[in-house]
Amino acid sequence: MVFGEFFHSPGQDEELVHLNVGGFRQTVGQSTLLRFPHTRLGRLLACHSEEAILELCDDYSVAEREYYFDRNPSLFRYVLNFYYTGKLHVMEELCVFSFCQEIEYWGINELFIDSCCSNRYQERKEDNPHKDWDQKSNDVSTDSSFEESSVFEKELEKFDGMRLGSLRKKIWIHMENPASCLSAKLIAVSSLSVVLASIVAMCVHSMAEFQKTEDGVENPVLEAVEITCIVWFTGELAIRLAAAPCQKKFWKSPLNIIDFVSIIPFYATLAVDTQDEESEDIENVGKVVQILRLMRIFRILKLARHSVGLRSLGATLRHSYHEVGLLLLFLSVGISIFSVLVYSVEKDDAGSGLTSIPICWWWATISMTTVGYGDTHPVTLAGKLLGSTCIICGILVVALPITIIFNKFSKYYQKQKDVDGDAGGEEPAPGAGQLPYFNIRDLYAQRVHSFLSSLSSAGIVASEQDSTDASSIEEAEDAYDTASLENDPAK
After folding, report:
1. Is the dihedral of CA 346, 351, 354, 356 positive or negative?
2. Are strands 59-61 and 66-69 parallel, antiparallel or unpaired?
3. What would the pLDDT profile of 98-137 be if each residue is shown by its tens digit?
4. Beta-bridge partners for 21
5. Does residue 277 sit in the same domain as residue 356?
6. Phi and psi dihedrals of 355, rounded to 5?
7. What pLDDT, in 10s, does the model give residues 351-409?
8. b or e along 84-93 (b: 16 or more beta carbons within 10 Å of the residue's beta carbon)?
9. In degrees, to the nearest 5, what angle opens at C-alpha 43 toward C-alphas 37 and 44?
10. Total domains, the chain
């Protein structure tokens, strides 16, 4: 009992109400319940038929005039205390929303919560939405991680009915899951090394001293590196395409599209270079070749296949387009406002470079993003004050959505690492997925024997009838065990 239950005892002439809440029995006077007639127990006393009573309680015994409720018995003590004292106290051991649902079931308004508990109750209710958001984010991330794992498993099942299915399945696992075995890791490391070598060669090729030799031809070392990398990329893509369980789904994958786009510039440049020099479009050939060579920058995106961070970044941007749009909206509004304001105060100054609104857009953009190249800047006092305000507002505007995006990136990064770890884990031992075998009857018999022995040793068996009952239970169990052994030849 809690609080007022100690001090309340119904009068002798008062009609009593027998309540049974989850096995907790309590007798309460009708006058106590009628103090709050709009609650469930108060309305229960106004019922005049068994149907109306069963609408408010789970069961009703006519003989004992007992009302049964299948609810939390521990919390019902707090409900009884409310009827006795008129003040409701919060059950700290219970979730705040479960507590809210329970008192709503009993028809008690949360406004009756006493002042000693109301502040803590409201704080717990306000903190819970943030926990719910985190839980939902985790659930989404976990679901997406499980979906990725399940998709890979379903892809492996498709190889069973294919031609050369076992060989293609082995190749596919080696190419798509570097953590599966040592050879797959070596292939992944080799592919990553080729990507890095291709990027380094592209950067070196942009330097004037390495572009052409003294004879005016391409640097043979860089050209050899380029051809070797292209052969590797082409072979890798061809092997993946040949081993893929579904060709249509293969070309829908962003990583495979990146692999294809990264080798197109080489073959397109090769086709352009082999054109007849007397062609009418020979003047544009040089520009086309330069553009195609610049497209080799897409090879950097091939690192996403081997980088958990890049894949997590892509997943974060894909699931954070609302926040990214919000960031762009905030920046656009701020840039538009500050560009017009600084133009209005700087246009009349001859020494200012902010002579038009488009130029002021550029200044506002680099100021709000805190880049500040310094190529254009206000020179008047009012312009400098506006510039300071623009920088401070830019910090606040950028910081708000970035925090949400960073939290999502952290969650996706952790989940992606978990998925990679699960994919590269060892196979379970044989029989690990089987449930352990328990003989419930033997366990029950052991528990009963130990319990009866403890009662006998403690001298709690009070009467001969009790001891006779205990011995009869033991005899019945022995007989049941003997019959089971005779009927079960496996034992």
Report:
1. positive
2. antiparallel
3. 888 888 999 998 888 888 888 888 888 777 655 554 455 4
4. 24, 69
5. no
6. -100, -5
7. 888 888 989 999 999 998 888 787 888 899 999 999 999 999 999 888 888 878 888 78
8. bbeebbbbee
9. 135
10. 3
CA angle 230, 173, 182 (to 5 degrees): 85
328 and 387 share a domain? yes
- Token pair for residue 308? 């958990």
Whether residue 382 is found in the same domain as residue 394 = yes
d(CA 253, CA 453): 69
The answer as to whether 406 is a domain residue is: yes
Residue 476 makes CB contacts below 8 A (sequence gap 6+) with none
Structure tokens at 242: 């040949």
**Same-domain status, 88 and 196:** no
Rg (CA), the chain: 39
Q: Which of 421, 439, 460 is the last residue of a domain?
A: 421
Residue 134, in any domain of the structure:
no
CB < 8 Å & 24+ apart, contacts of 479-484:
480/441, 481/441, 481/445, 484/441
Segment 236-248 mean pLDDT: 87
User: Minimal CA–CA distance to 9: which of 30, 28, 37?
Assistant: 28
Q: Where are the alpha helices (DSSP H) in 86-114?
A: 96-105
Residue type, position 84, single letter: Y
* Domain CATH number, residue 162: 1.20.120.350
State pTM to two decimals: 0.45
d(Cα 301, Cα 297) in Å, to the nearest integer? 8
Same domain, 321 and 275: no
Nearest to 315 by CA among 73, 482, 143: 143
Q: Which residues are CB-contacts of 312 (< 8 A; sequence separation ≥ 6)?
A: 409, 412, 413, 416
Q: What are phi and psi of 29, to 5 degrees?
A: -75, 150
CA distance 230 to 217: 20
| Distance from chain centroid for Cα 119 | 31
Is residue 3 included in any domain, yes or no?
no
**Which helix or strand (DSSP H or E) is residue 323 part of?**
helix 321-346
> Distance between CA atoms of 140 and 312, rounded to whole angstroms?
14
Q: Which two tokens stand for residue 320?
A: 């954070």
Both tokens of 482, joined, read 């003997």
CA angle 234, 290, 202 (to 5 degrees): 55
Q: What share of the chain is helix, strand, coil (3-state, %, to 5)?
A: 70, 5, 25
**Torsion angles phi and psi, residue 192, rounded to 5:** -65, -40
* β-pair partners for 29: 16
The whole-angstrom distance between residue 105's C-alpha and the CA centroid of its chain comes to 32
Sign of CA dihedral 34, 36, 38, 43: negative
Phi/psi-derived region of residue 397, left when phi > 0, alpha when psi is between -120 and 50, beta in every other case: alpha
- Among 306, 328, 356, the domain boundary falls at 306
Q: State the Cα–Cα distance between residues 409 and 317, nearest whole angstrom.
A: 9
Residue 426, judged by CB atoms within 10 A of its CB (0-12, 13-18, 19+), counts as: exposed
Domain span at 36: 16-127
